[in-house]
């Protein structure tokens, strides 16, 4: 039979090791994947793409020369995407008045995307990123949904991130488009 003090020491060693491992896990979690790193670096020229929409239409970045283009990465299974899709639809006319087109890019399969598009009455020019080598998801480094990448009229990445009014870059885009829209009226 081992003395009581040896069992106590062993127990304290186990507790200290457990505490250290917990601290390491917390540190790794806090410094781990940063969602805001989704997207490309601002200021670089947008990658070229030539993809098909669920309507069958071929869409190329060449169509958006001298226009802004917002790629809005969504997924039909994404709860925040479902909750905010009507908001995203509501900014389309504001963006158009600022010479910006919005293109939805689904990170799901074509069947789920088509059902989602019908349910929310979305324009048929929706790209399914993971079907038929349409990898806009990879080209634009979209790691989460919803996320966005805005290409300005010069064809350069102006901003990428999470489309939420709490996010400064997104908020600035919407304010800019809203102000442009007011000037027009």
Number of domains: 2
The total count of helices amounts to 6
Strand order of the largest sheet: 5-4-3-6-7
The 3D shape can be described as: elongated
Q: Count the E strands.
A: 7
Structural class: alpha/beta
Helix content: 40-55%
Radius of gyration: 23 Å
The CATH C-level name of the largest domain is Alpha Beta
Main beta sheet, described? 5 strands, mixed
Write a compact overview of the structure shown.
This protein is α/β, with parallel strands linked by helices. It has helices spanning 4-30, 79-90, 92-97, 110-119, 136-139, 168-184; strands at 50-52, 58-60, 68-74, 100-106, 126-128, 147-151, 157-161.
Protein model, in words:
There is one protein chain. The chain is of the alpha/beta class and 185 residues long. It folds into two domains: 1-32; 35-184, Glutaredoxin (3-Layer(aba) Sandwich). 41% of the residues lie in helices and 18% in strands. The protein has six helices and seven strands, in the order αβββααβαβαββα. It has helices at 4-30, 79-90, 92-97, 110-119, 136-139, 168-184, and strands at 50-52, 58-60, 68-74, 100-106, 126-128, 147-151, 157-161. The strands form two sheets. Strands 5-4-3-6-7 form a five-stranded mixed β-sheet. It is elongated and about 85 Å long. The model is unreliable at 31-36 (pLDDT under 50).
């Amino acid at each position: 039979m081992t003395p009581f003090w040896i069992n106590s020491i062993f127990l304290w060693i186990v507790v200290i090791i457990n505490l250290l491992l917990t601290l390491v896990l917390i540190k790794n979690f806090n410094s781990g994947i940063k969602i805001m790193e989704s997207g490309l670096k601002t200021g670089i020229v947008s990658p070229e793409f030539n993809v098909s929409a669920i309507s069958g239409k071929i869409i190329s970045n060449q169509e958006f020369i001298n226009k802004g283009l917002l790629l809005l990465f969504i997924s039909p299974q994404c709860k925040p995407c479902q909750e905010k899709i009507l908001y995203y639809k509501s900014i389309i006319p504001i963006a158009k008045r600022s010479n910006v087109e919005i293109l939805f890019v689904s990170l799901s399969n074509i069947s789920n995307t088509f059902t989602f598009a019908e349910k929310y009455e979305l324009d048929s020019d929706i790209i399914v990123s993971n079907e038929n080598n349409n990898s806009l998801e990879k080209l634009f480094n979209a790691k989460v949904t919803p996320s966005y990448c805005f290409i300005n009229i010069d064809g350069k990445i102006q901003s990428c991130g999470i489309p939420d009014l709490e996010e400064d870059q997104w908020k600035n885009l919407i304010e800019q488009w809203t102000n442009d829209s007011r000037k027009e009226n």
